[in-house]
Structures are given as C-alpha cells and as structure tokens.
Amino acid sequence: MTDLEQIEQSIAKREAAILDANDKIWSYAELPYEEYRSSALLCGLLEKEGFTVETGVAHIPTAFIAKYSRGSGKPVMGILGEFDALAALSQQAATPVRTPVISGAPGHGCGHSCLGTGALAAALAVKDHLDACRKDGTIVYYGCAAEEGAGAKQFMARDGLFDGVDFVYTWHPAARNEVQQQNNVAIMGANFEFFGRSAHAGGSPHLGRSALDAAELMSVGVNYLREHMIDQARIHYAYVDAGGTSPNVVQDHSLVKYEVRAPKVHQMKELFERVVKVARGAAMMTETEMRYEVTMAFSDYVPNDVLGRFATKCMMEVGAPKWEETDFALAKSFLESYDPATLETIRAEIAADFGADRLAELLQKPLDTEIHPYTDGPHPYHSGSTDVGDVGYAVPTLNLNVATCCLGNVGHTWQMTAQSCSPLAHKGLLTAAKMLALCTIRTMQSPETIRAAWEEYRARTGGVYHCPLPDGAMPPVGRY
C-alpha cells in the first residue's frame, strides 16, 4: 500500500465523524476566545484516538495541544488547526440567498470549521501511518483559538510551544488549490481609551472635557497620517464606546480600536507609534486622559520555499477535489449571488488568473480543478494578516490553500459561511486532509528536506523567534 492509499483509507474510515465535526463547529459559530464547545469537540476526538491533550495553553482557555508519539518521538511534526467564527455572518448552510440562521449572529465566514476538522483528519492519518509502519515520531495538533481576534499562535510561540518541532504544516479554505505564495503582512491592534469629565452640554459645557471629541480628533489625525505612510500599510478602526446616547451630556469616556498593518514587524511598530502619538495629541487638545492597551500583534507570514516546492508535489499527487455537476451548479449560484459591481471585479480576476479565453467556461463551472505550480520568492505581499506568521518565525512553516468555495469567492462574507457547510467544503476539507497528511509523512521521510528547510529558515530569521507583542502582554480573553 502506498503512503497515499494508506492516508485515503485512514480518512475514509473517519469521514462521517470528521464531516459531522465540521458541521457541528459550523453550527456553534463561536467568536474568538469563546470557542468552548468547538475546542472540547476537537479535544474529545483526539483523546479518543489516543492523543495526549493539554488544554488552556498559553493562558487561553480554548487553546490546546494534542500529541501522539512512538519510539524516540523524533521527528516532531506539527499541524495547525483553527475553529473560531466571525461576528454577524450567520447564514443558512449551502444557501446562495441571504438567509441568516439568526440575524446578527456569528458565522464561519472564513471557513475555520473546515480548517480545524480537515487538519484534525490529517493528524489522525499521520498517527495511523506511524502505527502501521512502526515509525518513530511525534505528531502534534495545535488547537489555535482566536485567529480572527487577537490570536493564539504568537502567545503559544512566546511560551515555547513550538520549540523542538521540526516543521509545521497548515491549510486554509480558499478558491484555488495551491501552496500559498503570497506573504501576509504584520499587524498590531490596541484599545485606545479616553477619559474626560461629564457636564451639562447646554448649561455648563465649559466644565466638560469630551472623551468623544478626543476619539474623533484621533480619527482626524490618523486620516491625515494615511498620506504619509508606505503604500502597503493599512490602518483600521472601530468605535466600541462613543460615550453614551445623550447628546446633552458631555461624554466622559470613549473607546476606539485601532489596527495597523505593514509588510514587516519593524514597519508595523513604527507606524503604530505614530498612531499612539496622534492619540496623545488628541488627548492634549481636549484636556482628556488617554490610555491604550496592545491587544494583538502578528508577525508577517513568509512561505518556506523548500517546503513550498516539496508540498506542491504532494498536492499534485493527491489532486484537486473531485467535483460533480451538482457542485459546479452550486458554486455558480454562489458566484451569481454577488452584486453586479463585485461580480465584475471577480470576472476580471478570474480572467487575469486563468486567461481570458477560459472566462466563459469558468463562469459556468466556477470551481478550481487543478493544482497550481509553486514559484520561489521573493513573494508579493497580500494585505491580510494571520498569526501563522509567528509560527513561521519559530519553525519552518507552510500554508496550503485548498478549494472549498467558488472561484472569485470573497472571504468574510455570508457566502463563505454558507459554503463552509456544503458539499463544496466537505470535499475540499477531506482533500486538504489528504494533502496535509501526505506532506507531513513525506517530509518526515526526507531528512534532507527538513535540513534544507531549517537552513532557509535560519537565513531569513537568524534562528530566533522575537515576539511582536510588548513584554508582559497577555491574551485579552474577555477584553478583545
């Protein structure tokens, strides 16, 4: 029996349980740091399979590590799983018309229900391989909470939970089948609070000091700052507390969240300090007090080229998900659910990616049916961020993208929520599990690949992980 045949057999015997776990986690739709049911479900499945599970790691109640070892326990292989949802993206499963399950409730608009369960299936297949072939080794499943929030992986890396690991693989639900070839940017987020003095806005406004004015002046200052930062940088914000709903009361408190992105950690930190200076200036102008707390910081993600080339061969051996005509029809209905302006942009992107001569064909059957080749760096930056970047600064790491949705799909939308509990996601996550397992087993069998991946890692990072968080920063559980 070949490695792939063994993997396929391992996943097939658990297929019903894995898909049931995906659908349950999808229905739980738990927000960052609140994934108690999702985490418990995954831990239970791993314990049942003989893994040793440690919960509450890195001071995060819903984060965990599950290990299975044989013999010497070497090499040590890591697979990352995620399982958190996004706010306000509730949507009925496999339904291409906007129909929330519960209006305003969370939904898996990034497909992390698929990510966590597909990664779990891969870890179990690697465990079966170790047992069947009587191989030495350790497979570690990392239950990574809150990727959509303040993250877990940077706290896990800071606590040394990736020390001694030889390599790490993960995957993400996507519209294309390929090793991720783009870098992700670094990000830092903070809560900025302003404290003023309340007063009657009509009778004694001169006695008040408005915290809302301070927050708004901060917004004005940051907007002017945008002209004077690098093109690849981003600044986002959201009001959490505007000081109440009574306009005749001078607001004595406000809280606004800011997130700063840039290609590299040092660029991110420099830009964040400029945002802090704007906040201090706003406080001075309004005679209020400003305090801020850094709640998140992710390093930039950079693919490991050695693992990228190696993994692409494994992905090609597995092949793309086996779509049926009903799958193409469902994907087409989701593609056509976008508004005309978005759909026009999607058409242009499909033509650019696959060739204008294939556009008409792919609009009728908008699912990726191939594995795309890998090109070594330097890699372009994608303006999204992920805490997988911190794992990549701690150990050689690679992310695979596997199709679970229609071509042109826009992430963090109700369309993605619906597709994440559909036949598209089911076929995609099972395919991803096979790919992750084969990549892990083949890398384990290739000490020269592991050595080369570490040489590349050390040349890029110096071989030392530097956490982007301020010293002493703790996971903002209950505060994010």
SSE order and pairing:
Elements: H1 3-28, H2 36-48, E1 52-55, E2 64-70, E3 76-82, H3 112-133, E4 137-144, H4 153-158, E5 167-174, E6 178-179, E7 183-184, E8 186-195, H5 211-225, E9 234-241, E10 253-262, H6 265-286, E11 289-298, H7 305-318, H8 325-335, H9 340-354, H10 359-364, E12 381-382, H11 388-392, E13 397-403, H12 414-419, H13 423-444, H14 447-461
Helix pairs in contact: 1-2, 1-3, 1-13, 3-13, 5-6, 7-13, 7-14
Describe what you observe in this structure.
The chain is an alpha/beta fold and 480 residues long. It has two domains: 344 residues, Zn peptidases (Aminopeptidase, 3-Layer(aba) Sandwich); 112 residues, Alpha-Beta Plaits (2-Layer Sandwich). The chain has 14 helices and 13 strands. A seven-stranded mixed β-sheet has the order 1-2-4-3-5-13-6. α1 packs antiparallel against α2 and α5 crosses α6. It is globular. The N and C termini lie far apart (49 Å).
Q: Would you state the CATH class of the largest domain?
A: Alpha Beta
Number of helices: 14
Sheet/helix structural class: alpha/beta
Tell me the strand percentage band. Answer: 15-25%
Shape: globular
Order of helices and strands: HHEEEHEHEEEEHEEHEHHHHEHEHHH
Tell me roughly what share of residues is in helical segments.
Answer: 40-55%
Number of domains: 2
Distance between the termini: 49 Å
| CATH architectural label of the largest domain | 3-Layer(aba) Sandwich
Q: Catalogue the unreliable spans.
A: none
Strand order of the largest sheet: 1-2-4-3-5-13-6
Features:
480 residues; alpha/beta; Aminopeptidase; Alpha-Beta Plaits; 2 domains; seven-stranded mixed β-sheet; 18% strand; globular
